[in-house]
Amino acid sequence: MIARGFKSVIWVAAVGGAALGCYMVSLRVATERADLARVEGQILAAKGEIRSLQTELGTRGRMTQLEDWNSNVLALSAPSSAQFVRDPVALARLERHEPTVAEQSAEVRMASAETGAAAVPADPDVAAPAAPAAAKPAPRVVTAVAPAPPPPQPTLVHQASYTPATSAKLKPAATAPVPPEKKPAKPATIAAAKPVKTAPATAAKPDRPAPATAAKPDRPAPVRVATAAKPDKPAPAPAKAKPGKTAAAAAVPAKTSPRTASAAAPSHGGKGGGSSGR
Amino acid sequence: MVAIAVNPPRLGDAGNRQDGLSLTYYRLMLVMLMFAGVTLLIATRLLYLQVFTDRSAGAVLANGLVPARADITDRNGLPLARTIDAWTIAVHPNRLLGNPDELAAKLAQLMPERGADQYRAILKSGKSFAFLARRAVPDLVAAVNALGEPAIEFMREPERLYPQTGLAAHVLGFTDSTGHGVAGMERVLDDRLTNPVTRGTPVALSIDTRVQAALESELGAAMAKFSAIGAAGIVLDIKTGEVLAMTSLPQVNPNAPGRGLEQAGFNRATLGVYELGSTFKPFTVAMAMDSGIIKSFGQMYNCPRALVVGGGFTITDTHPFGRACSVAEIMKESSNIGTAQIAAQVGSATQQKFLRAMGFMEPVSIELAERGRTLTPGANWGDIATMTVGYGHGIAVTPLHLAIGYATLFNGGIWRPATLLKTGKDHPVPAGHRVFTEETSYRMRALLRLVVLDGTGKKAEAPGYRVGGKTGTAEKIVGGHYTGQAVVTTFAGVFPMDDPRYVVVAMLDDPKATADTYGFHTAGWNVAPVVSRVVSRTGALLGVSPDSSREANLAEVMPYVQREAAH
């Protein structure tokens, strides 16, 4: 009875509730939409700001301004054609790696390894590689020993008495600049062996040039002789009438003497080595 | 339930009362229905608005970033022209509250463009509105605002800004105070830039800002060094006709047009016509090769010290041979006498046919409206005119004509109009039409490379970039006569010569000799180095990698050059 009496009220409540629910959903959607619109507005504002900042940056960093900075401060210039690398090979050539002492010695080992299977035992013998050269050829492969050792031999001979191991290693690496540096120091002890380089320094040198010139024709023969040290030194001296130069340049080339010596050494080494190798 | 029955008071006639009651009910019902109807209507409308209204306001948002006028960018997307909201300061003199005298003095202090008297005149004019400053910077706006005068109004107005200032000013042009283009591409593209449908997307020009900057800087330096009164330069893509850089000096600043020199607005590259001198010689030789007159660069011509042609007209050379010389030598030393003879063999009709095909008889083919009419011998195109035109005198064209001509000569012989719009899907490369044969085009490479390697254009060499080209020094007509004092020097270069891709034309108007040039004011001394430096700076940017191991095929010319050339 009572329920029947309240039926209409319940209906109204139900309909009202449903309507309210619908309205809440709608309101929620509207709120979300408003938020979205606000975010989009912010994005838009940010874009506008980005654009104006970009414009400002572009204006401040305009090409003429950059050019001014470059001419006043940076002084950069366009790369020349030589600075362009065309292929990977050319790029690889650009690498200038200064070998460390350890790497130098490692390289030497590899070089000696190439000469033949007996290369390893050769190391300990380095002390007298040049001299043994004559002896070794016989037991070992002729071709293997000949090509590698020849060029360095002259220097080998010099340093043999001093520091056999290191000198031996350095030769094959063709580290031209290194030997010269060491040599100046060594002459003191091995004065007799290295006179050629320090020619101007000692009184004894003048004598050597003379023997050198005299020895030139003889070199091939003396090379194999036990006095390997001498033939080598004369070699640099005669290198194209250097005796004259050494005399005249006594004072001047003092500093450059190591270089001239080193420059001359390889060339003679090549000649002398070739002969001695045989 | 309790029911209470109330006997209505019986007043009057019962029948009447009954009618009146029903009428009342009826009216009540009507009013109620009206209220219900209106309520329903409002509810429906609310519901409709609630459900169907798009609150994201997408249309408004989408328009937010669309500028009033489209951006202009270079070929790499770097903005060259943009529209920004700039501050404008205005005043309502009739609503002024403060003391006009004091205010005028303060305004003159802040904005010295006008004096205190002028500001006072504005403030006392009693008008309803007057501009005080446009394009004001924010600092100025803040300072003026601090004066506290309520009659002063600050507004944001769309303003055209050119971030690169004077760069490519003659290409871009500028807009007037109403925002419409009045020069350059701003004028050409006005509809496209302001159309609401298209203004959202920027327009890409063919200009490359980096190349443009290098060209302007080098040309400007040369112009200053040689005290020239003007200069023009063009870098053109041979295969597409795209103008990568085009400049005319002195410059104009499009941000403040009208504040520069009166003549600065004059575009020398497309509007100014000049006799471009010896740079025409390669055309004459190419015409002769196409016509079968020159079969080999070893063909000999008699080159006396002076050539007297009909009517007592004398042609001379700066480096006279005084002997027979080959075509290669004529080009290498830029001999007028030799070229005149070749031109005479080509003949007037053929010459005109070729020049017309290259567009030299009409305003240059480019979008710009600033295009000059070329000057030709016209009806007097006789033998002598043919000869002088053969070496670039008696015909005046724009530097851009020359660039297009060289592009035609070295791209395989196809003429194409120049364009300032980036080529692509929207703007395809035009087909063009053939002017020279491919063989002529190929063989000319060696000839122009020779000029740079061993001739008058040595200073244009850029190591590794294989530049070829031709110098041109033309006397200017002053007071109706040619004078040796004033010249126009031009260099038309092409690189890389083993596979031509770009033309570089540089021109100096009236350069003076300096100590550096040993008193010479010829093109080889003043304008050729400009080309060399421009090519060195931009070659790699343009995709030409310098390579000293490559070279044009010079086998065709070298045998015909006499080593001990007498001069």
Short summary of the structure?
The complex is a heterodimer of chains A (278) and B (567). Chain A is an all-alpha fold and 278 residues long. In chain A, 67% of the residues lie in helices and 0% in strands.
Task: Explain what this protein looks like in three dimensions.
- The complex is a heterodimer of chains A (278) and B (567).
- Chain A is mainly alpha-helical.
- Chain A is built from 16 helices and no strands.
- Chain A has helices spanning 2-60, 63-74, 88-93, 101-115, 119-125, 130-135, 142-145, 153-160, 164-173, 178-189, 204-207, 209-215, 220-224, 229-232, 242-248, 257-277.
- The longest helix of chain A is centred in the first third of the chain and has 59 residues, at 2-60.
- Chain A is elongated and about 115 Å long.
- With 567 residues, chain B is of the alpha+beta class.
- The termini of chain B are far apart.
- In chain B, strands 1, 2, 3, 4 and 5 form a five-stranded mixed sheet that branches. A five-stranded antiparallel sheet of chain B has the order 7-6-18-17-16, with helices on both faces.
- At the A-B interface, α1 and α2 of A face β2 and α9 of B.
Average pLDDT taken over every residue of chain A = 59
Cα(first) to Cα(last) distance of chain A is 137 Å
Overall shape of chain B: it is elongated
- Count of individual beta strands of chain A: 0
- Supply the helix-strand structural class of chain A: mainly alpha
Largest interface: A-B, 29 and 34 residues
Q: Low-confidence segments of chain B, ≥5 residues, pLDDT <50? A: none
What Rg of chain A do the Cα atoms give? 43 Å
Oligomer description: heterodimer
The secondary-structure class of chain B comes to alpha+beta
Estimate the helix proportion of chain A, in percent: 55-70%
